[in-house]
Amino acid sequence: MKTKMDLQIILILIVVGLLAGLFSGMFGVGGGVIMVPLMVFALGYTQHQAQGTSLAVLAVPVTFLAAYTYHKTGEQPLNYKYAIVIAACFVLGGYFGTKIAISINETLLKKIFSILLIVVAVRMFFSK
Q1: Residues of the chain whose pLDDT is less than 50?
Q2: Rounded Cα gap, residues 38 and 11, in angstroms
Q3: How many CB atoms lie within 10 A of CB 39?
Q4: Which one of 14, 30, 46, 100 is separated from 128 by 20 to 30 angstroms, measured CA to CA?
Q5: Which tens digits make up the pLDDT trace of 22-52?
Q6: What range does the domain containing 120 cover?
């Protein structure tokens, strides 16, 4: 894992953040789908380090502006009641998911993560 904050690392971090934000705003994804693989490949993070860092980034209300932009369109307003229930459960799920993830060997965790991405991609690709 690279730890020195030289210009190359700062540029990589900027690209990771911009891509995650861009894809989050466009598709509702960013943490696991964009940031984790980029941190593993570009920064040499372990799967555990990348997942933890992704969660730390998401702990800050980074998506508020993006969600607000969707809300402002008014075409189909966001259901904030649903969002609050999902967010509360996300906190619980995140806690227990982290407990499980840190107990799994990194190689196996990468494989599970990869399979999840493939399954989601194939399902999305072939859906109507």
Answers
A1: none
A2: 13
A3: 26
A4: 30
A5: 777 766 677 778 888 888 888 898 888 888 8
A6: 7-126
